[in-house]
Every structure is written in C-alpha cells, then in structure tokens.
Task: inverse folding
C-alpha cells in the first residue's frame, strides 16, 4: 500500500457550536447519515453498528476542538508522517528504524512503516515516559520529604 499524506481535520468554532454530540448508542440503536444534495435530492445511508462507535469517537474528538485523522491499521507511513504521530523528530524515527525498534520496509529508496507498528512504538514510548515521570515525582518527593 502506498503512503498517503496524513490529513488532519478539525471543526471551526462556529461548526463546533452548531453541531451536537451523538447520544450514547445502545444495543439495537441504528445510525443513519442523511445527505442533502445541492439540487434538493436527499440520500440516506445506513452506518453499520460496528462503525457507529468509530463515528461516535470521531465526532466527540472533533467537538472537543481536537484535530483528527483517519488511517487504516495497515497504512504505510513515511518517517516524516511517523514522526508526527510519535512526537519525535524524523531523524529519531530513522534511528529507531535502524535500531530495530520500528519495523519498516524500503519502497525504492524510501522507508515505510505500518501504522500499527508506529502505534505500538508510541505505546512503548508512552509507557516508558510514564515510568520516568513517576520516578521523577518520587525523587522530588524524597528531596522535599527527607532533604536528600
């Protein structure tokens, strides 16, 4: 699969105020999308129950003012795209690839990593950062409590 530019989308403040969140869906609820075309034609699309949770989460994030991107799990990303997700520089992504922390393949001369592998690395980095933060908090507490 070829890499695609990650496109982040968000709502304007005006659109966020005009939109309303989806009510919490329960078993048996159906989600439909009504499209009103410019010529007056209306089209109704049924959203499968398995996709309703994704639509609900997408809208919730956007209504909170967050920008979102939708990608397939097996989407291939360039090091630059992976760096945006990981929150680290492109050279650090390449270093992680070279060290074996992030599986990748070459497409010609270009590196590509699967989104699921980038997210797995992000999870490991986030866990490591949480441990470091907890250790720093404990150290700060020892310094303040015991004057160490």
Result:
């Amino acid at each position: 699969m070829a890499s695609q530019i990650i496109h982040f989308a968000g709502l304007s403040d005006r659109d966020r105020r005009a939109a309303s969140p989806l009510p919490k869906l329960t078993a048996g609820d159906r989600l439909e999308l009504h499209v009103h075309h410019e010529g007056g034609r209306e089209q109704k699309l049924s959203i499968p129950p398995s996709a309703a949770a994704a639509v609900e989460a997408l809208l919730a994030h956007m209504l909170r003012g967050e920008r979102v991107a939708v990608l397939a799990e097996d989407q291939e990303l360039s090091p630059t795209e992976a760096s945006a997700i990981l929150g680290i520089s492109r050279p650090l992504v390449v270093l992680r690839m070279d060290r074996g922390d992030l599986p990748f393949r070459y497409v010609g001369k270009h590196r590509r990593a699967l989104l699921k592998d980038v997210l797995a690395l992000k999870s490991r980095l986030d866990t490591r950062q949480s441990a470091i933060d907890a250790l720093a908090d404990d150290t700060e507490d020892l310094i303040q409590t015991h004057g160490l």
Remarks:
- The chain has a mean pLDDT of 88.
- The helical segments are 13-18, 49-63, 79-86, 90-99, 115-146.
